[in-house]
């Protein structure tokens, strides 16, 4: 997959996209990533990329002529052009898997107070990583890139991730344990050491359901559930109402 980013701060991407899984994806040829400096598309003597807003008010706005010139150095390309903005549709696992099906993505990072409204005509999608404001779109772009690239077929664990991740199963994951077997008086649950794979899977499913019930009950409305799952949830509900009657919740 080819990912191009337009940014005023290409150096911000160096660390996160060279290390760990993203670094491995690049070394293995699964990710062809390039950050392009928007400032290279500036034309005047001062290489300015932004200006004050018409109508007054504070802050600086990225110029539409500079942004489109930067974009046109990458085009024509049959690729979605995605602007990271607090006004975009909220990013999710579903959007990540949809984006992962494209061969190429172009991400545009705004800065300052935002971008000239007329640039929206050159964008095919607007994405927000959540309801908060960042100083620039770069960190949001990195979040999107990480979530999309880890789903690429051929990346270590991509198949596992695609079927077992919280937001692929529709449930939160249950607890995980590794060595040591006992830590400060707390032991790993016996079932995990039993070697009974079917029983372990049943236990894990139950823990995932319990955790989802406790922390994100709204996910249970859309998660695909078996009859056995529904029975377990009924058990939690009874447990919970007994605890409530006893004044413990
Ligand atoms: C575009 C318009 C994304 C980009 C305005 C970007 C939060 C997110 C930016 C701005 C961003 C997010 C400066 C407000 C850059 N902030 N939630 N900032 N602002 O995904």
What does this structure look like?
The chain has two domains: 148 residues, Alpha/beta knot; 67 residues, tRNA(m1g37)methyltransferase, domain 2 (Trp Operon Repressor, Chain A, Orthogonal Bundle), CATH 1.10.1270.20. The protein has a five-stranded parallel β-sheet. A three-stranded mixed β-sheet has the order 3-4-7. A two-stranded antiparallel sheet has the order 9-10. Strand 5, helix 3 and strand 6 form a beta-alpha-beta unit. It starts with a strand and ends with a helix. The protein is elongated, with a radius of gyration of 24 Å. With 249 residues, it is an alpha/beta fold. The mean pLDDT is 95. The chain binds 6-{[2-(dimethylamino)benzyl]amino}pyridine-3-carboxamide (4G4). 6-{[2-(dimethylamino)benzyl]amino}pyridine-3-carboxamide binds next to strand 5 and strand 7.
């Amino acid at each position: 997959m080819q990912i191009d980013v337009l940014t005023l701060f290409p150096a911000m991407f160096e660390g996160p996209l060279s290390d760990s899984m993203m670094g491995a994806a690049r070394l293995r040829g699964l990710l062809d990533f390039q950050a392009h400096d928007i400032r290279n598309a500036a034309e005047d003597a001062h290489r300015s990329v932004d200006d004050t807003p018409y109508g007054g008010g504070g802050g600086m706005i990225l110029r539409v002529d500079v942004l489109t010139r930067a974009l046109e150095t990458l085009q024509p390309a049959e690729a979605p052009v995605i602007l990271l903005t607090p006004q975009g549709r909220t990013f999710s696992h579903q959007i990540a898997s949809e984006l992962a099906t494209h061969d190429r993505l172009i991400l545009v990072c705004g800065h300052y107070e935002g971008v000239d409204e007329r640039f929206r005509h050159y964008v095919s999608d607007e994405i927000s990583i959540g309801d908060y404001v960042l100083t620039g779109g770069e960190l949001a772009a990195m979040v999107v890139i990480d979530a999309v690239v880890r789903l690429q077929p051929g990346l270590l664990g991509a198949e596992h991730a695609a079927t077992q991740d919280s937001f692929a199963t529709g449930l939160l994951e249950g607890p995980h344990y590794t060595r040591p077997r006992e830590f400060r008086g707390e032991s790993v649950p016996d079932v995990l050491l039993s070697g009974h794979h079917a029983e372990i899977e049943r236990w894990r499913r139950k823990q995932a359901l319990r955790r989802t019930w406790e922390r994100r009950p709204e996910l249970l409305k859309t998660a695909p559930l078996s009859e056995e799952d529904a029975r377990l949830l009924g058990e939690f509900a009874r447990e919970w109402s007994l605890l409530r009657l006893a004044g413990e919740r």
